[in-house]
Amino acid sequence: MSEPASKPEPGTKSKSPARPQSGGNRRGAIAGLIIIIVILGVGWWLARDLTAASKMQDCLMSGRRNCNVIEPAR
């Protein structure tokens, strides 16, 4: 009986080297990119909201009464 061909003999090269699958790596990279985009979007929204709240507080602390933003009629 012959031995199974699971291990090549020392000093010989295997004919077909194992290649890693690239599909899993791309999924992880795409998922990471989506998470980063979501975090940046939430951070941008939060920064704008906090800036607006800070401006409103500055206006109210200075004693003014007309701090509301008036939008033009359409």
SSE map:
Elements: H1 23-61
Number of helices: 1
Point out poorly predicted stretches.
none
Shape descriptor reads rod-shaped
| Average residue pLDDT | 80
Distance between the termini: 90 Å
Secondary-structure class: mainly alpha
Total number of strands: 0
Proportion in helices: 40-55%
Q: What can you tell me about this protein's structure?
A:
The protein is an all-alpha fold and 74 residues long. The chain contains one helix and no strands. The chain starts with 22 loop residues before the first helix and ends in a 13-residue tail after the last helix. The model has no long low-confidence stretch (mean pLDDT 80). Keywords: Membrane, Transmembrane, Transmembrane helix. Residues 1-25 are annotated as: Disordered.
Key descriptive features of the protein:
0% strand; mainly alpha; 74 residues; 53% helix; single chain; rod-shaped; 1 helix
Quick structural gist:
The protein has one helix at 23-61. The chain has 74 residues and is mainly alpha-helical. Keywords: Membrane, Transmembrane, Transmembrane helix.
